[in-house]
Amino acid sequence: MTSLFGSSLGVFVGLAGLLFGLAAFLTGQAIADTWRPVGQAVASALGLALAVRFLDFSLFGGPLLSLPAFLMAWAWLSAVAWFAWRVTLAHNMVRQYPWLYELAGPFGWKPRKKAS
Hints:
about 120 residues; two-stranded antiparallel sheet; 3 helices; about 5% strand; elongated
């Protein structure tokens, strides 16, 4: 009997949550560092979700073609990649243009106030 997560919740947390979550985070950072759009991070998360399904199938005997498990992995990995992309982009904007912008929280930037 398989669960909504594939073979089990523990395998899902280990593979999608930790191992591939770190890969999605690094992917989001790399895409933001090269000033590419967030859609590429979401598309990359698609490939990572496919890898999660394959490893769940090949190592733990989970179903290969489980749409709910695939969609859950893709949603999680897309969220992690988006988070890393946005945080990295905000820091890059402030680092690249320090005379124009300052950080406004972890996800954004705002125009720097002019000294009067």
